[in-house]
Design brief:
The protein is α/β, with parallel strands linked by helices. Helices cover 46% and strands 12% of the residues. It has a single domain, classed as Rossmann fold (3-Layer(aba) Sandwich), CATH 3.40.50.720. Helix 4 packs parallel to helix 5. Bound molecules: nicotinamide-adenine-dinucleotide (NAD). The site of nicotinamide-adenine-dinucleotide has 22 residues, from helix 1, strand 2 and helix 4.
Length: 192
């Protein structure tokens, strides 16, 4: 695990941060970075081996971390994840909705099951984790929710993205649009 120099100016020190899809890739990098910056991190993933590796690396670095193995598209796991974070470290300050997937192929060639899998993975996980964590952020009038999206959503008209991206783009556009919608439901909240 690399330990980057701090440029968060202590803003996440001692905060409690959940990262979804923390076993590998961008989620793992976010987990490591938040931990290195002093946050108490909780990672969720469906891959136990990857979580074990993350836990071992963070333990070896002397950083505060706890892993929850489960499917974030399942209501019970999303709810239990937040309880787990509360039990281990206290109220959640930061949620990183990182889980995302796609399937290769153009939209007119795509199986409905593949579409449903993408929507479920990309949107349902973010919805359930946000729903589970939002009440305590609202009660404390403090919290940050980060939703990962795709550069495909910002592609300008007339510029082609990779052929076959529509299956990725539509769900990610929806997730990109969601924070404003969610925030407007809680006008007194400082959550982002
Ligand atoms: N990698 C890229 O080039 C890229 C580009 C644009 C956007 N993104 C976005 O960044 C995010 C992360 O991408 P990545 O490439 O690191 O992904 P990845 O596939 O490498 O990792 C995703 C992680 O999420 C876990 N996961 C998947 N479904 C899960 C579920 N239901 N419950 C719990 N864990 C689950 C996987 O086990 C895996 O560890 C995604 O939202 C993706 O859309 C990535």
């Amino acid at each position: 695990m690399t330990k980057p120099g701090s440029d968060m100016h202590g803003r996440v020190a001692d905060k409690v941060a959940i990262v979804t899809g923390a076993g590998r890739g961008i989620g793992r990098a976010a987990l490591d970075r938040l931990a290195a910056e002093g946050a108490n991190v909780v990672g969720i993933d469906i891959n136990q081996d990857d979580l074990d590796r993350a836990q071992a690396d963070l333990d070896a670095a002397g950083l505060a971390a706890a892993m929850y193995c489960g499917d974030a598209t399942e209501e019970s796991h999303a709810a239990r994840l937040v309880e787990f974070a509360n039990e281990r470290f206290g109220p959640v300050d930061i949620l990183v909705n990182n889980i995302g997937t796609t399937r290769a192929g153009r939209i007119w060639e795509m199986a409905v099951d593949d579409w449903d899998y993408i929507i479920r993975t990309n949107l349902r996980s973010a919805f359930l984790c946000t729903r589970a964590v939002a009440p305590q952020m609202i009660a404390r009038r403090s919290g940050r929710i980060v939703n990962l999206s795709s550069g495909a959503v910002t592609a300008r008209r007339g510029r082609r993205t990779t052929p076959g991206t529509p299956p990725m783009r539509r769900p990610r556009q929806a997730s990109k649009a969601s924070p404003a919608t969610w925030r407007s439901n809680y006008p007194n909240s400082t959550s982002q």
